[in-house]
Amino acid sequence: MVTYIDAASAPLKNTGAIRLYGAEDFEGMRRACQLTARCLDALVEIVQPGVTTAAIDRFVFEYGMDHGALPATLNYRGYKYSVCTSINHVVCHGMPEDKPLREGDIVNIDVTFLLDGWHGDSSRMYPVGQIKRAAERLMEVTHECLMRGIAAVRPGARTGAIGEAIQTFAEAERCSVVRDFCGHGVGRLFHDSPNILHYGKATEGPEIREGMIFTIEPMINLGKPHVKVLSDGWTAVTRDRSLTAQYEHTVGVTATGCEIFTLSPAGLDAPGLTR
Ligand code: MF3
Ligand code: CO
Ligand code: CO
């Protein structure tokens, strides 16, 4: 049984109930999410062959500090960085390191800023110099998966409609959907109910209601869907070492659909524009 609670009167822990937020809360989320989007915009110029992911981590930390925001991943469950940087066959939770990016790499940069108590969570793919057509196509398919998932969001539908839209498109494009990680409720908490699966059926999952806020963040592989987590406890990679991509937006459910809080003010959301 799912329960829905007024976010204003709910305890600040994940009890499994789904929080419904009001107009002022949406305004707080808009601000946090737009800061995240502007940071992701600024990274377009920074991601170049020779730049280390450690330098990207420092940039994101400074960007947060300069704008009164804390990177929510810093010391989150023992994670030590301000950002996740996931390169090529790394599915998610790649840790910044002192190794330079190389021409032809594709890297997902996932930023979550905590601003005035609100979490803005978004990620995009960045090509490093010239990339192969297969990599570009995977990024295009993955972004389209995200946008089709978002298009399925409306009050009365179930969260499974999001997963069905994503899985149907990904598999028609001969790609696979990672099952081990999902989108999530977000707002006052970084990771909250409900889980948003990127596969499944439209008849599954809780009903979507106005006032819900969650992420959609499909991870799509060129090969098989299976992943493994490396011995560092964080880095998730494709088992077959196939190329993988991810895009993430934070959305708020409105009366007729949803608002994408993390949309790029510069229009740099989609692949091909991110360069
Ligand atoms: N930002 C990621 C997400 O989309 C979570 C990263 S948690 C970390 O949910 F600890 F790995 F940083
Ligand atoms: Co997320
Ligand atoms: Co994220």
Automatic annotation (TrEMBL):
Q: Which GO terms describe its molecular function?
A: initiator methionyl aminopeptidase activity; metal ion binding; metalloaminopeptidase activity
Q: Which GO terms describe its biological process?
A: proteolysis
Record-listed substrate binding positions: H93, H191
Q: Which residues are noted in the entry as a divalent metal cation 2-binding?
A: D121, H184, E217, E248
**What GO CC annotations are associated with the protein?**
cytosol
Q: InterPro entries, alphabetically?
A: Creatinase/aminopeptidase-like, Pept_M24, Pept_M24_MAP, Pept_M24A_MAP1
Q: Which reaction does it catalyse?
A: Release of N-terminal amino acids, preferentially methionine, from peptides and arylamides
Which amino acids does the record list as binding a divalent metal cation 1?
D110, D121, E248
The superkingdom listed in its UniProt entry is: Bacteria
What range(s) does the Peptidase M24 domain occupy? Answer: 27-255
Which cofactor is recorded for it? Answer: Co(2+); Zn(2+); Mn(2+); Fe(2+)
Q: What are the protein's UniProt keywords?
A: Aminopeptidase, Hydrolase, Metal-binding, Protease
Keyword Hydrolase applies: yes
Q: What is its EC number?
A: 3.4.11.18
* Cofactor, how bound (note): Binds 2 divalent metal cations per subunit. Has a high-affinity and a low affinity metal-binding site. The true nature of the physiological cofactor is under debate. The enzyme is active with cobalt, zinc, manganese or divalent iron ions. Most likely, methionine aminopeptidases function as mononuclear Fe(2+)-metalloproteases under physiological conditions, and the catalytically relevant metal-binding site has been assigned to the histidine-containing high-affinity site.
Q: Does the keyword Hydrolase apply?
A: yes
Q: What does this protein do?
A: Removes the N-terminal methionine from nascent proteins. The N-terminal methionine is often cleaved when the second residue in the primary sequence is small and uncharged (Met-Ala-, Cys, Gly, Pro, Ser, Thr, or Val). Requires deformylation of the N(alpha)-formylated initiator methionine before it can be hydrolyzed.
Assembly with partners or alone: Monomer.
> Which family does the entry's similarity section mention?
Belongs to the peptidase M24A family. Methionine aminopeptidase type 1 subfamily.
> What PANTHER family does the annotation carry?
METHIONINE AMINOPEPTIDASE (PTHR43330:SF27)
Name of the protein in question:
Methionine aminopeptidase
Please give the organism. Peteryoungia ipomoeae
Gene from which the chain derives: map
